[in-house]
Amino acid sequence: MILRQSLGEDRFPIDVERLALEWTPVIDRDAPVTRVSERPLDGCDGALVDGRRRGKGWGIAYSDAIRHPGRRRFTVAHELGHFLVHRHLAPDGGFRCWPEDMATWDHERSPQEAEANRFAARLLMPLDDFRRQVPARARVSLAELGRLAEERYGVSITACVLQWLSLTERRAVLVMSRDGYVLWGKSSTPALRSGAFFRTRGRSPMEVPTASPAATGASEIPPDGVSHPAGVWFSGEPVVEEVIVSDRYDLGLSLLHLEDRVRNFEQREEEALDTFDLMEQRSNR
């Protein structure tokens, strides 16, 4: 694969800024990405700036309010995804991406943002390498995914958990909450197909169960998670909940592990494309 051959096995975390500047001329030599910089963006996380009318090609900007290096890296990768896949469809001036866009993995809700997020995840956490780190059948903890995010891939724990959910054969659900209400939930394929999911779009706000540490903001959470009986998160079955509560962002991140009792499902294996192969296949659409 091209990235593995050019950068080697010891290429993590990916230097996405360098990649954007060195590889986009291969994709579009007349108007590549010529600058990646930090800027005040008035609430936006990132932007793909169209400077072609000024003879400057494209620029990628990330907000100076973002302090976590992994979140900055993911934002740059997200905007690089817009360049490679969506630049021919860009609105006047380019793309401006808000925090909720970085959490959008629902293709029906926002196809372009979901595609940019999936591209960023595959670029920073390639399928083949991620599968070597976490086998599809492994029950992995939130702490283990946090270490993988920090020490290998240099991304946020949210991005790493979402990547795991897209690949695992286990039943699990990630829930993001704030002030005692569910913002969104994301299920693994086996969980989704067994009916374990949350509908948040177009619905009244859903309260986090009072038994959840995410509802109370508990500071002391057992390392193995909290076991809940049926009826707490899902009416028909128990779950084990692992939680990270962020004082800085006032967010709760709950990973719900469900019993591995649903075995007869068909899961389509995604083709393990190298990220640069994906760039070449989709950039000229």
UniProtKB/TrEMBL annotation:
Domain of life: Bacteria
InterPro entries to which the protein is assigned, alphabetical: IrrE_HExxH, Rad_response_metalloprotease
Protein name: ImmA/IrrE family metallo-endopeptidase
Pfam entry (one): Peptidase_M78
Region (Disordered): 203-222
Residue ranges constituting the IrrE N-terminal-like domain according to the UniProt record: 35-158
